[in-house]
Design a protein that fits this description.
This protein is an alpha+beta fold. Helix content is about 30%, strand content about 20%. The chain contains 15 helices and 18 strands. A nine-stranded mixed β-sheet has the order 10-11-17-16-15-12-13-14-18, sandwiched between helices. A seven-stranded mixed β-sheet has the order 1-9-8-7-4-5-6, with helices on both faces. Helix 2 runs parallel beside helix 3 and helix 9 runs parallel beside helix 10. The chain is globular, with a radius of gyration of 22 Å.
Length: about 450
């Protein structure tokens, strides 16, 4: 017994160190094989470690920024980027280096994030924008003296770097409008052969954590790399609609409902079938994303695991209700901030409801008569969010992408929704689900209970 206790203490001491990489004593988690032609990384992965660029300390997780830079550095012909936000200067420098060696680089951003923050005045920004400005300003203070010089600000401003290097860049006002609902895509296409996509924005808070918060580990995210010229063509066609003839040309870019709409497109990646749907679609269009999600959920016979940032689609709760009655096991981990909002379907699954600020319940609200036990929220550092948008069905089908499970994602925003039929890939997402589940608060949390008490 004493020997066992000493061994446990030794492992604990190794794991608690923040100044060096940990070493594993005894039997660690079994390494999972990756599917052929597909790779996946998780920034909160418990089986890997890297040095945080914020603190210099070792932390658990895959270094998704270094992983992305490696992919960009390997590009020979073309890098297409369509992301809601890009504020990592190291990513910007990798794109600039690619262009300097003859690679075509083109970037599409959401209009709220397409301006150089270092050229903005915080006094003229709204509260949310001001918080973002101060975060980026603090990150840019490279010498840590508490003051960000103009040179540091420029060097730490990804958009300013891209524009100074004359990287072609547009946002969703390029079509002459004031912007679409949200240009919410998160994908890159490299050399017409590799697609990188998932839930993460290319920001410090999306990958690593927040400046000035040593406990922060970043929003909980994942990214996939899929090597497939056929899938790359599908993504390049979506990019081409948004790009039109590029910056300062004709107003022929198309975003939101102005794009030519398509249903689920399916390609074969080796022996894996991958379906991709780009939103938005009108509500009357049967090909919209919520219908696709409902169709996939209805195929479940044994289990459904879900890790979701936003879940606000009553249609999908109705499907889950029927599956529960059929004996399908349900686990859901949801972001704590969104789980307790009045429009959250997490509340429905818990069997409770909350009115909005006007004391009104959501139209068509239909909570379960008996709340589920398999509903939880993760314990995260202050400021971090559960930002995944994935589900695993029967341990063999993975649903992922930028697509939150909401009407806005289906009918307003530019989004990516993937359906990947691969038991091997599903094991990686199930491991991430198990990690979240092990420390989750299940059922009606104190946060939700306080809101119910105030009701």
């Amino acid at each position: 017994m004493l020997k066992s206790q000493l061994g446990f203490i030794a492992v604990a001491l190794l794991c608690c160190s923040c100044s060096q990489a940990g070493s594993v004593v005894g039997q660690g988690p079994a390494k999972l094989a990756m599917p052929k032609l597909i790779d996946v990384v998780f920034n909160h992965n418990d089986t890997t470690r890297y040095r945080s660029p914020l603190t210099g300390d070792w932390r658990n997780g895959d270094d998704m920024e270094a992983w992305l830079i490696e992919a960009i550095d390997a590009a020979n012909e073309e890098v297409l980027v369509a992301v809601q936000e890009l504020s990592l200067p190291r990513i910007a420098r990798a794109l600039i280096a690619a262009q300097q060696r003859g690679v075509r680089v083109a970037v599409v951003l959401e209009n709220n994030y397409s301006h150089a923050w270092s050229e903005q005045r915080p006094s003229r920004l709204n509260q949310r924008e001001r918080r973002r400005w101060h975060q980026l300003n603090r990150l840019a203070d490279s010498d840590g003296d508490g003051t960000t010089s103009p040179e540091e600000a420029f060097s730490g401003d990804a958009v300013a770097l891209l524009r100074a290097a004359r990287i072609e860049l547009i946002d969703d006002t390029e079509d002459g409008s004031s912007g679409s609902g949200l240009m919410h895509h998160k994908f890159l296409v490299i050399d017409k052969a590799t697609v990188i996509t998932g839930s993460a924005n290319l920001t410090s808070s999306g990958l690593h954590g927040d400046a000035g918060r040593p406990a922060s580990r970043g929003n909980v995210n994942h990214l996939l790399s899929i090597h497939s010229p056929e899938l790359s063509l599908v993504f390049r066609e979506e990019f081409a609609q948004m790009w039109g003839d590029g910056p300062d040309g004709e107003e022929d870019s198309r975003f939101g409902l102005q794009k030519a709409r398509k249903g689920l497109q399916t390609v074969q990646v080796g022996d894996i079938r991958v379906g991709v749907l780009f939103s938005p679609h009108p509500k009357r269009d049967r090909d919209h994303g919520l219908n696709l999600l409902a169709e996939q959920l209805e195929k479940a016979r044994e289990s459904i695991d879900m890790a979701l940032f936003v879940f606000s689609a009553q249609q999908l709760t109705n499907v889950l209700r029927e599956l529960i009655e059929q004996g399908v096991a349900i686990r859901l981990i949801a972001d704590p901030g969104f789980a307790s909002r009045s429009f959250s379907e997490v509340l429905d699954l818990l069997g409770v409801s909350l009115p909005d600020r006007n004391c009104k319940l959501e139209a068509g609200n239909h909570p379960l008569e008996q709340g589920l036990k398999g509903i939880g929220t993760p314990r995260l550092a202050h400021g971090d969010k559960l930002h995944h948008k994935f589900a695993v069905i029967d341990n063999k089908t993975v649903i992922t992408g930028s697509f939150n499970w909401s009407p806005s994602a289906a009918h307003t925003n530019d989004e990516t929704l993937l359906v990947i039929h691969s038991p091997q890939l599903a094991k990686h997402f199930t491991r991430e689900m198990d990690r979240l589940w092990d420390t989750a608060e299940l059922g009606i949390t104190p946060r939700i209970q306080r809101k119910l008490d105030r009701q």
